[in-house]
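Sample intake sheet
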Amino acid sequence: MDDLNSLTNKLRQCADDYAMLSPGDAVAVGVSGGKDSLVLLCALAALRRYYPAPFALEAVTIDAGFPDMDFSGVAALCRELEVPYTVVPTDIREIVFEARQENNPCSLCAKLRRGALANSLRERGCNKLALGHHFDDAVETLVMSVLFEGRLACFEPKTYLDRSGITVIRPLLYVGEKRLENMAARLALPVVESTCPMDKTSKRREAAAVLDSLSAAYPDLRSRIFGAMQRLPLPGWEKVR
């Protein structure tokens, strides 16, 4: 049976392959309240107990101001894990949907969230930001880039941000979404459902639908795409070991 330890081992493999963790790192997990970031938080909390490069861990949530999103369950989980937790209130929803009335609200929302996260991490002295992007996210991002931009591109496993001095890491890239979903259910994690009106209508959903359709005929399509990204490799996807 799959358990948190085996998932944490996959996370460690990814972290080692891309040199994501160094001794003395102060790592903040960007916790949206979704299953991916919550499983990431639990796995990193488990990993810090025995990882050879000691690191500090905390969690940060950017509250964009959408109604009926209660993070008290996340706060309770963080107390159980002995991880400091910060909720940063913002007016992102008001800016994006009311003041600006954006035609493409997801892009501006993501930009504002990243800025708020960077500011919070600097204030708290964190040098690493861990995000819950996983195997399926990477494959879908590449397909989105091809479909909508006509180029081969994807986020990198590890990215240094010059302006903020923060390094973004994505340790869940070797873990698929279904496995994360199962783990969140097994651990009874306090998932906070998004109330954003755009949550089910993104271009990522369109790319996932394309992949689902093709995977009916080619079941290992996602694995082949992910492997191609590593073997090419895409910029930033070169393994260090």
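Comment: Residues 67 and 112 are 18 Å apart (CA to CA). The two ends are 29 Å apart (CA to CA).
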